[in-house]
């Protein structure tokens, strides 16, 4: 038996069962869920960093976005609220389209 000990998407238990394999799952309490979401975010970011094609990068960005949606819910904010904060910061400080790299400051 393989041991994973990681957060998985909601339909994974059904997918595993439908394949005829056996597995063991548990439902996490809120504190543990948030901790595991943070670990999942790091996992997905690392997979994005390792991606080498547009398709793979797109898949990993979608996974990152899914985790962000779940994290927002745990903080009882909507993605629209997160987007409003992002937009405000964009208006005040800009984005990253200019590729500006700060070398030093005195």
TrEMBL record:
Q: Give the superkingdom in one word.
A: Bacteria
Which CDD domains does this one have?
A: NTP-PPase_COG4997
Which SUPFAM superfamilies did the record assign?
all-alpha NTP pyrophosphatases (SSF101386)
Name under which the protein is recorded: Putative house-cleaning noncanonical NTP pyrophosphatase (MazG superfamily)
| Organism whose genome encodes this protein | Ureibacillus chungkukjangi
